[in-house]
Design goal:
This is Transcriptional regulator. The chain is of the alpha+beta class and 261 residues long. It has helices spanning 5-10, 13-21, 29-36, 40-52, 67-87, 90-94, 103-107, 130-136, 153-162, 173-182, 184-192, 241-252; strands at 27-28, 56-59, 62-65, 116-118, 141-146, 166-172, 196-201, 207-213, 216-221, 232-236, 256-258. The termini are far apart.
């Protein structure tokens, strides 16, 4: 009796990688060997298994996916790309609340790529992320959604807005009230600046902060038990840009613009 297909595909890294290499079309054996950095002797048994399960065919030492192989690899690619995101730090992802993400965006979480999990030392927890701040001055725009506002952001917003960098900020009601109480001068000046666009989201936010510019994307999430820590993810734009734009627009559509205090 033959093994289940899932065992054939995922029980061997070599077989999985051969299938992924062939998703863009036929490949010669030499190309496959070079890409996988292996030998013909080591790879041939795996190739024979893939052929035996009608996933690939061989013609003159050139291999390609069968119709069944194409069907499986089309679905497999999405799954593999999701696992690559989570594999960066499965303990981090496994302890975060993700239900604030709408289903279509959660299903597209593979678009984030291999993000870094940042865990600042205690001495730096009150510092803004350097990658975000440095690249914001080079960006055309900065967008933020915040249920918890770092005290350094009002000053950053003020400097960027005066440089003509477009800023879109969505605050939770509590963050907006805190800004009015503690940073009223900054807020009044910012609202008058054409480069600054402020919105308030009145519903519950089950995450802490979401920030992106032309170069980087940062997100701080709650832990599954509702508590917080100092960890966050940092990803590179533009690969994530469509995902980050769609996430921002999802919250923007239910937010109220603020044009005066």
């Amino acid at each position: 009796m033959k093994k289940p297909l899932l065992d054939v595909i995922f029980a061997s890294e070599k077989r999985k990688n051969v299938l992924l290499l062939l998703q863009d079309g036929p490949r010669g054996m030499k190309y496959i060997l070079d890409q996988l950095e292996t030998t013909r002797q080591a790879l041939l048994p795996h190739v024979r298994i893939l052929e035996d399960y009608h996933l690939i065919t061989d013609s003159m030492d050139t291999y390609e996916l069968t119709d069944i192989g194409k069907l499986i690899v089309n679905k497999m690619t999405h799954l593999v790309s999701i696992t690559e995101v989570l594999d960066t730090d499965i303990d981090f992802w496994g302890t975060r609340k993700l239900d604030f993400l709408p289903s279509p965006l959660l299903n597209r979480i593979n678009e984030l790529g291999k993000c870094r999990v940042i865990s600042p030392p205690v001495t730096d927890i009150f510092e803004l992320d350097k990658d975000i701040t440095d690249t914001s001055y080079k960006s055309r725009s900065l967008s933020m959604i915040a249920a918890s506002l770092h005290p350094g952001y009002p000053h950053l917003f003020n400097e960027l807005a005066h440089k003509g960098i477009n800023i879109r900020a969505i605050f939770s009601k509590s963050v907006f009230d805190s800004m009015k109480s503690n940073y009223s001068t900054y807020l009044e000046e910012l609202i008058k600046n054409e480069s600054f666009n402020l919105y308030v989201y009145s519903e519950k936010m089950d995450f802490l902060a979401f920030v992106y510019n032309d170069f980087n994307f940062l997100m701080r999430m709650l832990k599954v038990d509702g508590t917080t820590d100092n960890k966050y993810i940092l990803c590179k734009n533009p690969p994530t840009l469509r995902w980050t734009n769609d996430f921002f627009e999802y919250y923007l559509k239910d937010s109220t613009p603020i044009t005066e205090l």
